[in-house]
Amino acid sequence: MISTSRHLLRQSPTSSCSLRRFSTVAAARPFKNNTTHHPSNSRRLISASAAAAGIGAATVVVVTTSYRRRQCHDDDDDVLAAKCSVKRIPSNADVLMLAPQKEPSTGILFPGACNGMRFVGCGVRVKWHFVKVYAVGTYVDPLSMAAVKKQSDGDIEKSLLDPNYPRTIRIVMNRTLSIEKYTSAIVEALEPRMEGVDLDKLEEFKMLNPSIDLVEGAEMEMTIRGDTMLYKNAVGGMGMIQSDVFCRALCDVYYGKDAVSPSHKEDVIKGIKGL
What we know:
Layout: E1 2-9, E2 21-28, H1 39-42, E3 60-71, E4 78-89, E5 101-102, E6 109-110, E7 113-114, E8 117-127, E9 131-140, H2 153-160, E10 167-173, H3 179-194, H4 200-207, E11 219-225, E12 228-232, E13 238-242, H5 244-255, H6 262-273
Antiparallel strand pairs: 1-2, 3-4, 5-6, 7-8, 8-9, 9-10, 10-11, 11-12, 12-13
Helix pairs in contact: 3-5
């Protein structure tokens, strides 16, 4: 008698940050009757595998089966009993079971994984000392941070300022805001850091955002890889800006000495150490 149960939580097609879970349990029991079974008719094989779709994140569960021949009271009666063992093969970005994390000041939840990267910290962007504009979280590639995580806070900060360390910056609005105020605030933070180089990229960034005001809960994602920033706007539209100067300035906005959210920066450094 063989029993198998599976549970699958599918990824929402509207969010690249949705969590996925897949687990398989398989068990085999010896046959309980006195009927003679021929090995060719009694052999049972149970196998299961799970794969998580996404960039750089997968976990595979493999069920291996071995056979043991058991001698019954009747010397001519052989029964094959299958023993199954479940082995977990972790990947470099095993994110299937990561729980969402809450930004304490706003209560906004951040999923444990986004774009194949792992959550390491979050904070809040405060304006005029009391207005909590949005929550911001960071996701990194654990492999790229494998050596960095053992270093000092200063060395981790230097790595965060280097766009060659991939990361996703996820912004979730805590209040309604016009798209003009949102883009203007980011442009104002970027422009002095770009020192007059590639300033046309600032206008490109504005064009990546549709002329729709942001509502509470609206999400934007900025994925940085070297000189390329892949952007997902509040309505799910995708765009790209290619400029080393722009990407380095964006890193400085969120991880530099004058980071727009000090609580976010501190939490990210702490999270990288805990990878």
